[in-house]
Structures are given as C-alpha cells and as structure tokens.
Amino acid sequence: MAKEKKRTLLSLLRLPQGKDSLLHYTALALTMFGSFMIVSTNMGNMTSNNLAILIVFIKQLAFFVVGYVMMLGAARLMDFHLIYRLSKLLFAVLLALMIVPLFGAEQFGSRAWIYINLGITTVSVQPSEFAKPFMIVLIASYFFAAQHKRSMQASAWQMLKFPLFCYAAFVVVILLQKDIGALAIVTLICFGCVQVPTFPSLRSLQKWTRRIVAAGICLVLLGMTSIGLPVVEELSKLPLVGHVASRFANAANPLGDDDSDLYGQSYQPANALYGIANSNIVGQGIGGSSRKFGYLTQADSDYILAIVIEETGIFGLGFIAAGYGILLFRLFKYAFKTSFVPYKVVLSGGALYFFAHFVLNIGGVSALIPLTGVPLLFISSGGTALVSSYLTIGICQNVIANINRKELSSKEE
Hints:
Layout: H1 2-12, H2 21-41, H3 52-77, H4 80-99, E1 114-117, E2 122-125, H5 131-148, H6 156-177, H7 180-194, H8 203-223, H9 228-235, H10 244-252, H11 267-277, H12 304-337, H13 341-365, H14 383-412
Antiparallel strand pairs: 1-2
C-alpha cells in the first residue's frame, strides 16, 4: 500500500507519458541561461545592497518552482470540458485579480502589479500575465463545445460570445493599467486562435481579424515616421495612452535630437543600443557589461537582451533564438499532426504566445519597433511571466501527450 502511494506521488511529479521531452528540456535550458544572466545583471546592485544577488536568486528559484509545479499540474489535469464548465468562475477570479493593481502605486508608467512586502524584499505579481494562457484554453474549450453542440456552429457569435466578452473586459482593464504590451499580446493570441478552425461561420470573423492585425502593424510602422509622429503626439494627449508617444519617438530616433535627450526619454533605448554595440560581436565576457551598472534601470527585465548581447555577443543571442526556434517548431509540428481543432488551437496559440513575446521584446530593445515592456520569456526577470510560461508549456504538454497516446497510436494500428 505504501509503495503504491509512493508510486502515485512520483507519477504526479513527472510529465505524462507521451510528453515532448525536447520541448521540456529547451524550456529548462532557456530558464537556466536566463537565471544566470539575471544574477549577472544584478551584480550592478551589489554596491547598494550586499544581499542583492542572494535575494534575486531566491526569488527566481521560488518562481521557477511555482511555475514548474503548475506546469506539472496543467500537463496532467487540463481538461477542455472542465474549463468550459468553470470558464465563468475562472474569468471572474482572474478579472478581480487584474483589477486589484488599479488601486496600487504606478510603476514604470503602469499599474499592473500587486506588491507583496516580505520585509527584506518586495515580490511583485502581475495577474494580466495569466490572461494570455487563459484566453488560449478558453477559446479552445469553446471550440471543443462547438464540436459537440452543432447549434453553436451556426454563427461565430454562438461559438465565441463568452470568449469575446472576456477579451473585451480584459482590454478595458489592461488599458486602465496602461500596459500596452499585455494588450498587444492578448490581442494577437485571441486573433490568432480564431484563425485556426475551418468552420464556415467563422470565415467573416477570420477575415476581419486578419485585416485589423495588418492595419495595426501598418499604423505602428507609420507612427514611427515623420508623417505619423505628429499624430502620435496628439493622440498621446488622450487619457490612458499619454506614455505611448515617447516610445514611438524613441523607436524613430533612439539617440534623440540632441545631447540632452540622452539623459531624458532617450536614456534607456540609447544605452541599450550602446550595450549591443559594445559587444563587438563576440561579447565582452560574462560579467563584462558596463550598462548594468546603473545605465539601464530595467536591465534584468525589459532590457536584459542588451546585457546578454553585450556580455555573450552573437553566441548568447544565437542560443536564445535557437531555443525559441525549437519551441515553435515542436508546437507547430504537433499542431499540423492533429486533426482535432481544440488541440490545434492550444498548440498554435502557445506558439504565437512565445513568438509574440520574442518579436516584441527584441524589436523594442533594438528600437526597430516601439518598446512595449514585454518580457523575454524564460530570460527576463519577472516571476509571473515565468510562471505563466511554464503553465503554457504544461497545457501544451497535456495536448501533445494526448496526441501521442491516442491519435498517433491509432494511426500506427
């Protein structure tokens, strides 16, 4: 009896049979590299706090453990029918958590975090990070229900009215938080997931979401030009988006118009580019970055890529790009193998989630697009983003395990 209980407990601490091991180990490798770079980056804080490195390491380890446990739980317990039944309760809890930061202090131009004071340090939690995997599984669960209830397939509204309501509510709260990055990611995830099914009633919605995304990309690029910048500056006078104009201006001219700009709104993007240029392709070596010593106030989060490139050069950037490439390849590989729509939605949505973070972070740090404050998943400091990343991996592993156990085994027979 004791052996059976021990065996049951050990099975809960492992990913399910049929998992994708390469996906698992790639996420771990990226996390280990990111954690190492976070510790290296925080060497710059040792002058003001002797315990800075230890505190950062313990916080990173704690969030990793929480994320890993949630990954294991999602990989074994995720169920479309259960999520569909509990969707309203899950939405209400998540929305309430997202509203809480609106009553807190503003940090880096946003009110998106819940701060927990632990005495020697403060831990921040960003509930909006969980809206991203939540929308993936929510949309997938409603497509799951539509496959079992033919009446839901009559129109896009019948299939997606509750997910659309959830998306609209999240948009309002995220706008009030002034978190443009989270808004962009949630929007791309929702619009991307809607593209996956081939239900005839969805074609009009799919066409319009593609047009909206294409128009949004064009407007962002136009906003960085001499034609669009004056319009962006006028729009910045509106409530909730006042901080956006400076990010467009920084992307259009990261070094500013004169020397004084380098100590104003161009301070962060200019120092990020200086750090990248200082890498001399091969990097200055681990610990060799000068930009982490007070030049970048968000050196371990939004701008950690600049530190990574300055210290490790093309090798560190190549490692990160290869890791993300493996994640995307494995997720899309199974998405194309399965014929079950909810599985396709989860895997495609998960791939889009990682890809969007990768592109928006690298584009923002290199000033190719306006900075959105989106973290580089598995690499940037930010415990909630790490937990959300592993939760997404766990959800995808659940789907992959089901594909391997059921669909691929039946094909072999």
